[in-house]
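seq as requested:
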Amino acid sequence: MTRGETQASDLVEGLGPFWESGTFWAAAAAVVAVVAVYVTHRAAHPRRRLMYAFTSDPLVQRHQREMSTRVLRVSLGDQELSDPRLVTLRLECRGTRDISSAQFENGKPIEVVLGVPILELVSMSTEPPDVHPTTFDVVDGVLRIGPGRLGAGETVSYTVLVDGAPDQYTLRRELIDVRVRPKWRVDRDGYLVDDVPRP
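struct tokens:
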């Protein structure tokens, strides 16, 4: 062993095991403190995410109206609809925690506003199919959802009937500690506009 190697070996032996170092324990304490703050923050603000998407489908296509006098006509009761459309809202609870009734600020429901009155709720479906959905109803031409539970990993779809092309696809909500984002955007004619950034 050379003289330099001997000196280095003596120096390492003089330092002792790294776990006996005050610097090591100070750094370890700092890491534990950071982790504790993160865990406390996550516990106080659990990750809840709600994705939503609209689709719109006319029941009578425009080219059918222009090319034939014998087109399908749709009526609701005694009212004949001039431009009947089915609009579907899909809600995906993608977070790691359920969205509960407590997340609906002051008990206010989620509201679906389309710019044209919602005439009828046509269908509702869930994924998985045995999910018990939160309360919903159509009031004054607006679909109202909740307050109630939206389970983590669950999806609920609502299909409604309107007369005329919606001039907006709006999800009004006042949810606490819930990140809400559109999955995609729909234009006035019901076509998908895929310019919404993915989460």
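The chain has a mean pLDDT of 79.
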